[in-house]
Write a structure and sequence with these properties.
single chain; 7-stranded mixed beta sheet; 0% helix; mainly beta
Length: 121
């Protein structure tokens, strides 16, 4: 069984910063791509940023230059540093990871429970 546990959400004023963390635990053989998604009220869940096991990254256009995704493979943890936050960044942020749990299992997608980020004056 695999769990992704997120932390670091909260409320911040426009222009502020937050750092999200997501730690994977359980029966893990390998972790491939890790990513952050977000879902704002009334909108579909959308990719914010992703990072491969080798460290290659990709970002949504709306967060380029403001957000940075990183990972610590020794800790099975992915981070999202969010700077210059805007009200439009308000959403529930979800951690996602492609994980293989054994040699006889294919990789599968796992999700965290979500953490609320609110940007308001």
């Amino acid at each position: 069984q695999v769990q992704l546990v997120e932390s670091g959400g909260g409320s911040v004023q426009p222009g502020g910063s937050l750092r999200l963390s997501c730690a994977a635990s359980g029966s893990i053989l390998s972790i491939y791509t890790m990513a952050w998604y977000r879902q704002a009220p009334g909108k579909q869940r959308a990719l914010v940023a992703g990072i491969s096991s080798g460290g290659s990254t990709n970002y949504a256009d709306s967060v380029k230059g403001r957000f940075t995704i990183s990972r610590d493979n020794a800790k099975n943890t992915v981070y999202l540093q969010m700077n210059i936050l805007e009200p439009e960044d308000t959403a529930v942020y979800y951690c996602n990871a492609a994980i293989r749990t054994s040699v006889i299992q294919k990789r599968a997608d796992y999700w965290g429970q979500g953490t609320q980020v609110t940007v308001a004056s």
